[in-house]
Design a protein that fits this description.
The protein is of the alpha/beta class. It has 25 helices and 26 strands. It starts with a strand and ends with a helix.
């Protein structure tokens, strides 16, 4: 028999504990003769954190998190004998549960598999229109992760024809004793993601004992704990991949098990008591978290629901039901990301569609950034160019407003882009010329390091009727300046007025911005690369190690240790440092070439002529972590092997020793230069960048963030009115 299984993920357990549950069950079903296809969306960073390859016991189908792709995989349900929809997919859950009912063949058995029954039942009790509740009369069977008689009785009370608990189990093929691993040595270890209904128990049974036993060592693994205050004797491991679970369990003296409140608290529901939702408390829910989410889930007032209502008001030809292949941009829609257009006559609300530019017109975006015209002494220009060109290619209209200052005016390498309108203003008063454009724009973004940024941000927030965002290309530097009371381009008073804070830095910094400064929504929007401009050129190797970057005091000691000292130790090797503002007093070794300024048009040739290149990160960004530089992606796109200093989150962007070489000392750089696999590392880094970090990826993410922010903007306008 054929099984079509629509779930969160089979190949990744990242924020997805159900993965190991599915694997053992489906492997055994396959051994019993079932033909299984598992459909999972490319969402929430799961594909970037795979811990198994597609298995041989099931066909793995990963689809873009777009409405068109979702409809495409739902159509395949018609060929199955058993059609399963699991909860917690995270994108299009409502459409999937309704879709399996509508698309399953008449003879097929339809199943809703609930791995979080207590939460689902709690939600259904409070929402008579809940999609699972609506689908239950047409579902043949409900399977649950556990729960016993209270869960079974509750589901039957809601109208389920059958409800059968399928408890968790051990798969002896994957879980067995292994030798201890020094990475996990500790007296007590705990593995689990940070969730609201678990956190209090972890404090009671793990963190408090750690504080009381400072001489003992404790280890915590799992996502979400990065910014949790912990005793000094507690090490945080971060995400522990499935392949590491055996060593994690076998190495410590003892392993702690902490049950989630919801897992054991359903009895409260039978007494008409409400169980806390996992969406409470501001912590990420595995069903809706993720910086790269294509469809934000924000409760009943979600932007996606608002989008459906707005879509009905679009002119004919712009509805999301139109075939993606029938419109311009269909291929781009399949490649990734939702498309976003302005619904004229609908209060300026954004809606999501699945193609390119629609008959209703694209988004009108105004950006006030540091510079688009000149890359001299800044990395902002190349970031804006790649992002906005890709954004415009998706059918949108972009106006970039740049402060006309002499140091950029004398060094302009882009004056007339054909993908956006570039205008210059001399002072804040000149912005009145663009007042109508700012007022009527669907979205206005103010960038970091813009001169008079606080005044400009206030001007924009007062004038704009659409979404207002702040794009921080320097987030750790910004936060350090705010902490010092330095409000050069943004102030604590400005931040709550932005509907979305787009950040070059991800990780726990985002939650800090929201909590500390009252930001409505902080979202990651990393730098990216334009692969049409950054690619291997075939240039002959001129340098063994290169570095491209503007001088800064905090980077210079690392540059000394990781490039100048290796140059002195390897006089027969060739080195180069490119970038402006280096002081005259630096003692450059004879085998280090200097290039004062390298325009972006020559970057690809520069990297291609380098056997390897060095990445050096600013101190504030090292402290924050999760802050990739655009130079990383540019060099990797050219297949140039990267040697980088070390910071938290880097190993989530590039795999250490496979896609990048990490170094802390002169000796480690020297050893890296002797490696014979540098070419393979460069090729692997290029594959990673092309798969995750191109400008097209970021443009799709920007669209999704604007969709989500528009819901908050509409509420702000409603309050103001």
């Amino acid at each position: 028999m054929k099984i079509a299984f629509y779930g969160s993920s089979l190949v990744s357990s990242y924020w997805n504990g159900a993965a190991t549950y599915y694997r053992g069950i489906l492997r055994d079903l396959a051994a019993r003769g079932y033909d299984i296809t598992f459909y999972e969306p490319d969402a929430f960073g799961r594909q970037q954190h795979r811990d198994i390859d597609p298995p041989d016991y099931a066909r793995s189908v990963v689809y873009p998190a777009t409405e068109a792709a979702m409809r495409g995989v739902l159509a395949e349900a018609a060929g199955a004998d058993i059609v399963v929809k699991a909860n917690g997919v995270g994108v299009f859950d409502a459409e999937l549960i309704a879709g399996i009912v509508a698309r399953a063949a008449p003879h097929a058995i339809t199943v809703f598999w609930d791995v979080d029954a207590a939460a689902t039942l709690d939600e259904m009790r409070g929402d008579p229109s809940h999609p699972v509740l609506r689908a239950l009369p047409d579902i043949d069977m409900v399977l649950t992760y556990g729960g016993g008689a209270p869960v079974v009785d509750a589901y039957r009370g809601f109208g389920a024809a059958q409800c059968v608990p399928i408890y968790n189990a051990l798969d002896p093929m994957t879980h067995f004793p292994v030798p201890p691993d020094p990475r996990f040595e500790s007296d007590l270890a705990f593995l689990g993601n940070r969730l609201p209904d678990r956190e209090a128990r972890v404090e009671d049974f793990f963190l408090r004992p750690a504080a009381a036993l400072p001489e003992r060592s404790f280890l915590i693994g799992g996502n979400g704990w990065e910014d949790k205050a912990m005793p000094a004797n507690v090490r945080h491991r971060g995400h522990v991949y499935t392949a590491e679970h055996n060593a994690f369990n076998c190495t410590p003296k003892a392993v702690l098990n902490v049950a989630r409140d919801l897992d054991g608290a359903y009895r409260l529901l039978t007494r008409d008591a409400r169980v806390r939702s996992r969406r409470g408390g501001g912590l990420p829910d595995h069903r809706c978290m993720g910086g790269d989410r294509a469809v934000p889930e924000t409760g009943r007032g979600s932007a996606r629901r608002a989008g459906r209502a707005g879509r009905r008001r679009l002119p004919r030809g712009t509805d999301a039901g139109a075939g993606a292949d029938d419109r311009p941009g269909g291929a781009a829609a399949r490649a990734g990301g939702s498309h976003l257009c302005a619904a004229r006559g609908a209060g300026g609300c954004f809606v999501q569609t699945t193609g390119g530019a629609s008959a209703g017109g694209g988004v009108k975006l105004v950006v006030l950034g540091l510079s688009l015209s000149s890359s001299w002494g800044n990395g902002h220009a190349t970031t804006y160019r790649a992002l906005l060109q890709a954004f415009a290619a998706r059918g949108h209209d972009v106006l970039f407003l740049e402060r006309d200052v002499p140091w950029y005016a004398d060094q302009r390498d882009l004056t007339d882009p054909d993908w956006c309108t570039l205008e210059f203003y001399r002072e804040i008063g000149d912005l009145e010329r663009y007042g109508a454009a700012i007022t009527n724009a669907d979205a206005v973004i103010v960038g970091s390091y813009v001169p008079d940024g606080v005044a400009i941000g206030t001007f924009v927030q007062e004038r704009a009727r659409g979404v207002v965002g702040f794009y921080d290309i320097d987030t750790p530097v910004t936060l350090a300046k705010l902490a010092r009371g330095d409000f050069e381009y943004i102030s604590p008073r400005c931040i709550p007025g932005y509907d979305v804070y787009l950040s070059f830095t991800g990780g726990p910094t985002l939650e800090y911005i929201e909590d500390r400064y009252g930001c409505p929504a902080a979202r990651p929007l990393y730098c990216s690369v334009d692969p049409s401009r950054y690619r291997p050129t075939g240039a002959a190797a001129r340098w063994d190690l290169s570095y491209l970057g503007t001088y800064s005091d905090d980077r210079q000691p690392t540059l000394e240790a990781l490039l100048l000292e290796p140059a002195r130790a390897l006089p027969n090797h060739r080195f180069v440092v490119a970038g402006p503002l280096y002081p005259d007093g630096i003692a450059w070794p004879d085998n280090v070439e200097r290039i004062a300024h390298l325009p972006p048009s020559e970057h690809a040739e520069f990297y291609s002529a380098s056997r390897s290149t060095l990445n050096v990160t600013r101190a504030d960004m090292i402290a924050a972590g999760w802050a990739p530089s655009v130079r990383l992606f540019e060099a990797a796109a050219c297949a140039t092997p990267i040697i980088s200093d070390v910071w938290r989150g880097l190993d989530e962007i590039f795999a250490a020793d496979r896609e990048i070489v990490m170094a802390r000392t002169t000796e480690q750089v020297i050893a890296a230069l002797q490696r014979d696999d540098l070419g393979a590392i460069g090729a692997a880094g290029r594959r990673r960048v092309l798969g995750e970090h191109t400008a097209e990826h970021r443009a799709a993410e920007l669209e999704a963030h604007l969709v989500e922010a528009n819901g908050g903007n509409a509420r702000r306008n409603a309050r103001a009115g």
